[in-house]
Amino acid sequence: ETEEKIEEPAIAGIAALGIILLLALALAPRAVREVRRKD
Description:
- The model has no long low-confidence stretch (mean pLDDT 87).
- The chain has one domain.
- It starts with a helix and ends with a helix.
- It has one helix at 2-38.
- The protein is an all-alpha fold.
């Protein structure tokens, strides 16, 4: 039981990090374009 309790949060954390990375990659080009427009 203790092993399951440890594994579940780890999997959720890894999944969250993966989603954050995907969002960052998707939004990065837009942020770069906005910065270039301002300059």
